[in-house]
Amino acid sequence: MDIIPNLSVDCVIFGFDSKNLNVLLVDRTLFDKNKNVVFSDFTLTGNHVLAGEDPDEAAVRILNDLTGLHDIYMEQFHTFGSTERLTREKDQTWINHLKLNIPQHVISVGYYSLIDANKVKIKSHNNRKVRWFPINLLPELAFDHELILRKALEMLRIKLRQEPIGFELLADKFTLTQVQRLYEAILGTKFDARNFRKKLAQMHYVVPLDEKQTSVRHKPAKLYLFSREVYERSRRDRFDFDI
Amino acid sequence: MDIIPNLSVDCVIFGFDSKNLNVLLVDRTLFDKNKNVVFSDFTLTGNHVLAGEDPDEAAVRILNDLTGLHDIYMEQFHTFGSTERLTREKDQTWINHLKLNIPQHVISVGYYSLIDANKVKIKSHNNRKVRWFPINLLPELAFDHELILRKALEMLRIKLRQEPIGFELLADKFTLTQVQRLYEAILGTKFDARNFRKKLAQMHYVVPLDEKQTSVRHKPAKLYLFSREVYERSRRDRFDFDI
DNA sequence: CCAAAAGTGTTTGCAATACACCCATGC
DNA sequence: GCATGGGTGTATTGCAAACACTTTTGG
Predict the structure, then answer these.
(1) Quick one: how many helices (H) and strands (E) in chain B?
(2) CB-contacted nucleotides of strand C (7 Å)
(3) How far is A24 from chain B (nearest CA, A)?
């Protein structure tokens, strides 16, 4: 299949493990002929856009290639086109070593995706190790991937304050404390539990179930689910209202 | 100069004329051999990205080509990659008629720019008429340019609520009422003058001058200017403060 | 019975809203 | 002197923030 040579897609895959916000990264270790490590760092997952392929589809394809997951929340957040993106010495060494057929200048469309980290069980991809990293304990990153990741995080934070996308990072059924930990992890803040719950209580699309946690060694928490239908309805109502 | 064949940049040029928020559009009228009009609509201004050119630079180049202006506020807001972007019959007719060498599938990076409409005096560009249109009186648009424009406006509204970018649309010296009209035009709302001024008064980067309007047939308004220095400082202070 | 997290109300301060009249200028 | 927009203060309401103790379960 033909590719568009100067265009790629990079995916920032965010996952929440009920404690930290994590990013899924792929090991990039380069060995010389004697199997000594020349350098070792990590990359986001990305790929070319195919000829006649919408970059949105490419992003879905790339995410699915790596994780096997479908129907994942994805958001295009920025396009990176600096002419210096791939020109660092280390990056050129890597490209030459693998004989990758990459032009000097590739423009990359950035997407982030939100998944429940517990749903993903990947150990390696194309012989490269795959690992979660908490966003405040990142390893060294290849190319301009640190820039891409920081921008993704910035855009995620903005989006999170405007739309209830956080639930994409949780299991279908969740507790209110999990929601709070999630918001704290993404925004890097602490919230007061009572005030946070008061706010959630006003969001009618967070609907309580007749169900509680089991086998926890403390008072079991009520479970909730996120109703997209109720959310869309309440949003329309709001738009109808103000003029 | 070589181009990247599948990549282009489209610019949504917003201008404010102290009453409406406007977009600068370029006439696209197609004539047949007898000089009858086949169709007539408008386009945003866009162009290919050159080989080895950062799309950010391409956007600056395109804006400058059209308006002759430099140092204009520009913001990349979304990348459009649908495979159907250019496939409407009208658009294909246009492409064939002008013998434009455009592939079937072009991905376009969208930028919006903010300028004081009074600074721009363009009548035509490449033999095509150039006109301002108020955003709530748009003509029919070519390709997917309506989609692009709506997205630009949506992103502008979001940005405007977070950063004081509105001043880019005003002259260096402006009155508080002009600021209010601007915000009303962009956000499509009305504000109470007293409350609006109270809010502006808290923004120390809106600094009063010892100067008033002249030759207006009403009480002359005090003039203000936007200080980026003060804004950046106050922003840093705020970040230092919360943790 | 102890550890661990769930769950719950009230007070306080600040920010957003609503609202009406006088002022300075050009014609 | 009149039409036009400039400019100003106060009272009310709603929302965000601060804050401490009891409850339920498993081990």
Answers:
(1) 6, 10
(2) 3-10, 16-20, 23-27
(3) 24
Alpha helices (H) along B5-138: 55-67, 89-97
Q: How many residues does chain B have?
A: 243
Residue B8 near residue B109 (C-beta atoms within 8 A): yes
Please name the residue that has the structure tokens 């009009």.
B37
Query: Which residue has the closest alpha carbon to D17 C1'?
Result: A195
Please give the biggest Cα pair distance in chain B: 70
Helix residue spans in chain B (DSSP H): 55-67, 89-97, 145-162, 176-187, 193-202, 228-241
- φ/ψ bin of A124: left (φ > 0), alpha (ψ from -120 to 50), beta (otherwise): beta
- How far apart, in Å, do the first and last CA atoms of chain B sit? 50
The model's pLDDT over B45-88, given as tens digits with 9 standing for 90+, comes to: 999 999 999 999 999 999 999 999 999 999 999 999 999 999 99
- Rounded to two decimals, what is the model's pTM? 0.95
Strand, coil or helix: B142: coil
Give me the numbers of helices (H) and strands (E) for chain A, helices first please: 6, 10
Q: Looking at the complex, report in whole angstroms how far the Cα of residue A214 sits from the nearest Cα belonging to chain B.
A: 35
The answer to whether the C-beta of B192 is closer than 7 A to strand C is: yes
User: Residue A242: its chain B contacts at CB < 8 A?
Assistant: 189
Catalogue the E-assigned strands of A51-179.
73-80, 107-116, 124-125, 128-134
The Cα–Cα gap between B131 and B135 comes to 12
Q: How many Å apart are A178 CA and D26 C1'?
A: 20
Q: Give strand letter and number of the nucleotide nearest A218 (CA to C1').
A: D25
pLDDT tens by residue, A174-213? 999 999 999 999 999 999 999 999 999 999 999 999 999 9
CA atoms of A2 and B130, how far apart (whole Å): 38
